Amino acid sequence: MPLGINNIPCSGFQSECEKAGIISVVHYSFKGECEKAAKILASFVDPQQSFDMTIPPQILVNAKGLIILTVISNGFFNSPRVGSGVVVARLADGTWSAPSALATRPGDIGQCRGQIGGEHIELIFILNDTTAVRTFSQKGSLILGGNVSIAIGPVERNIEAAGAAILKDIAGIFAYSKTKGFFAGVSLEGSVIIEQRDANEVMYQCQITAKELLGGDVKRPPEAEPLMSVLNSRVFTKVATPAEE
Questions:
Q1: Among 21, 58, 156, 200, whose CB has the most other CB atoms within 10 angstroms?
Q2: Distance in angstroms (rounded) separating the CA atoms of residues 61 and 151
């Protein structure tokens, strides 16, 4: 049976969501997660967007890994916020690893500040150094602000104004979030992101760890192609010069 968030079979996850009042139930599908991640990532790096809505190329080019998540909630008090997504790592040769499935612990990702009603939050975590990648690979989890430092990521306009100085002494992870297409403040400190071993086992047809996947020991599956297309785009490999813009 396909697995849902936190290793609950889809039927069980649907039941939990229905109890919580969530109408749009998310069934875990590795292919679906990769397609969703590709769309989310593309929306954060689209150069046609406003500078206030774009992750700077300087950040993307130097990224050692990315976590792409969707978190849902019905917006009522005490309702669970559950998230699922994938993590990838940049390998030594500049290519990207096979994705590993992941999830958030229920309730860990905080509400959007000022958000009323149902929530659908899209999150990108830029892993700025190999320590952040190694921590997730070895432990199978990340505690945001705990075993890895985190900060709200700068947008293109910040880079334009502050220049290279803003990239000095950066946090292990830069966080970017949107809700309903707009950047949003989300409470992240203390949130735990965990490896979905059962979902990985279903996808790769064997017992496998995030360490093996993110280390490049496993061939990227065809289901990951939509995400790989975005990751292999020019914005992740080259910072445009003024003459090229």
A1: 200
A2: 18
